[in-house]
# Entry
Amino acid sequence: MTRWVIAFLVCASGATLLAQVPDAKTIASRVDHHYNSLHSLSVAFSESYEGMGIHRAESGTLLLRKPGRMRWVYSEPKGKLFVLDGKYAYFYTPGDAQAQRINAKQLDDLRSPLRFLLGHTELMKELDGLKASAGTEDGVYVLTGAPKGGAGSGSAHLSRLALSVTADGTIRAMKIEEEDGSTTNFSFTNEVPNSPVTDADFIFRAPQGVTVVEGLPPV
# Structure
């Protein structure tokens, strides 16, 4: 009799945990609300890339300001910089004689997963087959889905996206899978909503001796 009682309690406990996971629409709405309500943001990031025989690990601080401005300041590798001023995106690696510039609209297509941090999208409209599950940490959920229209449809050949988010809609991590099998993982910590950034923080100033050229989007 005791054995059956224990089995029942275990099953009931599992059912309770499953019931505590909100549905995908609810979680997606929380993410949309969180980022759409901000006018600026600063957050520490770590990034890792695996694919095509390449492994890359980077980290730094990300600044964002609406409308459409980003500044990725890298501490590893030190001096690397990526700036989006709303019209153009600039990418510079220390030691290079040139900094690349591309049209912001082109970047928006090819780096579309990062739009979620700028808060001008709706997850339910952007992703097909959106599903929610419990994350590895208490109070963290995972949203997974595929870009509307399938891989290669203006989303940098994105095949799958997974977002780890808290109950209030804050993105803790992002996993990007591309159709060539490569993956990029971002983790975000120390988020400061409505941080005191200005438009001047998103002006790219080339280091002395560095020329700006038209280039391809960074990968």
Summary: The mean pLDDT is 83. The helical segments are 2-19, 24-36, 104-110, 115-118, 123-126.
